[in-house]
Specification:
about 40% helix, four-stranded mixed β-sheet, alpha+beta, Translation Initiation Factor IF3
C-alpha cells in the first residue's frame, strides 16, 4: 500500500453540482470495483476503496446488504471521509466516489471548471 492516503490529511476540494453530474456520466459505464456486504464498513473495505481510487480516480461502490437509504448515505459519507474522496452520487444501491491522482501528471480525469463552461 505504498501510494495509500489512509491516515494522511488529504481531501478533495468540494465539487460543484455540474462537476458531480459530469463525473456521474463518466461513471455510468463502470462496473462496481468495491462491494459493501453485511459487515459494513471494515478497515479492509476502506483500504480496498483507497487502492481502487489510487488506480482509477473514479470508482463505483455497490451496497449488497444495506437497503435503507439512510444507512447507505451514512456509510457513503464515512467512506468519503476516510478515503479523502468526494461522493459524486448515490444512485440506487451504488455510490460513486472521485479522488484525483496525487501526481497531476498521472491524472486521467479532469472535471470541468466554471471558466471552461462559459467559453
Amino acid at each position: 500500500m505504498a501510494s495509500s492516503r489512509l491516515g494522511k490529511e488529504t481531501t478533495v476540494e468540494p465539487l460543484e453540482g455540474f462537476q458531480r453530474k459530469y463525473l456521474r456520466g463518466l461513471a455510468h459505464h463502470l462496473v462496481p470495483a468495491v462491494s459493501v456486504g453485511q459487515k459494513g464498513l471494515t478497515p479492509s473495505l476502506v483500504e480496498e476503496l483507497d487502492r481502487a481510487l489510487d488506480r482509477h480516480e473514479l470508482v463505483k461502490v455497490k451496497f449488497l446488504d444495506f437497503k435503507e437509504k439512510e444507512a447507505k448515505t451514512a456509510l457513503s459519507a464515512e467512506l468519503a471521509e476516510k478515503t479523502g474522496a468526494a461522493l459524486c452520487g448515490l444512485i440506487g444501491h451504488t455510490a460513486i466516489f472521485y479522488r484525483p491522482q496525487a501526481d497531476p501528471e498521472k491524472r486521467l480525469i479532469h472535471p470541468p471548471t466554471r471558466d471552461a463552461q462559459k467559453g
